[in-house]
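Mods, move this if it's the wrong board.
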Amino acid sequence: MYLLLFTIIYLLIAIPMTEWTKWKKYYTTIQYYVICDLLYNFLFYDHTLWEYRSVETEWLNHTIIDLIFTFLIIPVAIYFYLSFLPEGKKNVCVHYGMGYTV
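Not the wrong board. Structure tokens:
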């Protein structure tokens, strides 16, 4: 229940705040994350670093929770982060320089 509520609220907040017309610019990065995460979960199915567990329900297992994160939550977060990065070498250096000093 909490995961469903979190996902809906997260998407309702994040979707209006991003410019979805530029999705092709960040598509390869999102696709890289999704492919690597699915490959990791396939290769290390029995030996994962951590396991998601639902508090309320039995049917909401690690696989379903991880697929929700892989296809809904993390791609929107990646798109949201990359869409607000400044463009140009000078602006990127200033952006990261200010981030490191703060």
